[in-house]
Amino acid sequence: MIAVGVLGLVLGVLIATLALDISLPSEWAAYLSLAALAGLDTAFGGWRASLEGRFHTDVFISGFIVNALLAALLAYLGDRIGVDLFLAAVVTLGGRMFLNLSLIRRYYLNQLALRRQRG
Question: Which one of 25, 33, 54, 80 is separated from 104 by 20 to 30 angstroms, measured CA to CA?
């Protein structure tokens, strides 16, 4: 179910990018990239939680908002003090995203192996 949401998100972004001519200020690049990374991290975390049978909508929504705000805040503070603090958010969120993807992949590979054993 979550996979459908992630697929819809990706398709929506692609369609909007290709169909709409929207220009954003280059100063927003770090903030928007971190917000997108935080959103993807939350989406993959929700997908993983759904597969494990422990998905809760309130945790998903609050995690999305808090992760995006914290990542943007780190980027803003880093800009103000002249230190690339957004790299901490990129490393953390990227690491979590890859961990969640590896566990999702492992789940589906295990399901495939179980079907082969039964059939």
Answer: 33
